[in-house]
Design goal:
With about 290 residues, the protein is an alpha+beta fold. The chain is built from 2 helices and 12 strands; from the N terminus they run H-H-E-E-E-E-E-E-E-E-E-E-E-E. It has a 6-stranded antiparallel beta barrel.
Amino acid sequence: MPKTSRKYRKTALTLFAGVISLLMLGILFHGFRTFLYRFFSDFFYPYLSAPGDLGRTISDQTMLLRSKHELVTEIEKLRRENQLLMSRFTVATEAQIENRELRQLIKLERKPGFRYIYTTVLLRDPLDWRERFIINCGSEDGIRPGSVVLTGSRVTENDTGSIPAFCGIVREVSRHTAEVITLAGGEAAVSARLESSDAVGFINADAGAAAPGDMRTRLNFLPANREYMAGEPVVTAGFEKDIPAGILIGHITEVLGGNTVYDNRLYVNALVRPAADFENIRFLVVLTRQ
C-alpha cells in the first residue's frame, strides 16, 4: 500500500512539473517573440521606410520644378472637380428629400368620397411667394374651385418626419392650370378643430387682425371657457363640402385674449404655426369630390 501511494505521488508531481514547464515555455516563447519582433522592426525600419521617403522627396522636388502656371492650372482643375462633386452631392440630397416627400404623399390615408390628384407647382410669383401659386392641373384633370390642397409638412411637432398637411384651397381653375391660395395669405378660410380640447374655430375668419410679417396663422372664435395648450394640434373640422375632416393644419403657439375684462367673454383667438412649408412647396395632392 505505501508503495502504491508513493507511486501516485510521484506521478502527480511529474504531471505538475510538466504543466509548470509548459507554462514557463509559453511565457518564454511569448517574450522571445516580442523581443524578436521589436528588434527586427527597429533594425529594418530604415530600410523599409526608405522607398516611401524617397518617393515623397521626389514628389516634393518635382513640385518645386513645376512652374507657377502649371500649379495654378492644377489648382483650378482640382477646384472645378470639387465644385462638380459638391453639385452632385446637392442634387443627390435634394432627390432624397423629394423622394421622401413623395412617399409620404403616396401613403396618405384615403378619405372616403374623395379623388386624389397628384400634381406639382407650375408657377410662383416672387411677390406672393407664400400666399399663392399655380399648379399644372386644371378642370380637365377634375380640379374644381374650393378643392383642398395638401403638401408635405416641414416637420411634425416632435420633429420626427414629414407628414401630409393642409396647404391651401383652389380659387380659380382653367383647363390645364389652377390657382391655389394658401393659409399664409389670410384669404383661405377653413373651419378647424383642436384635437386635445375638442374646440372648434375658424382659420383666417378675422384675417385683418393678423400682424404684418408674422408667419403664423390666426385661429378665431375659439370658446373662451376652454383650456388651450401650446403645441396642441389643429386639424380641419370638415364643415366645408370639399374639405374632409382630420387634415393637419398646424399647432397652436399662443392664445390671445380672454385674460382681461376688456376681452371678449365668449371667444378667444390663437396663433397657429402652419405645418405646411410654404417656402419650399413642390409636390401636392388635390382632393376633389367624386
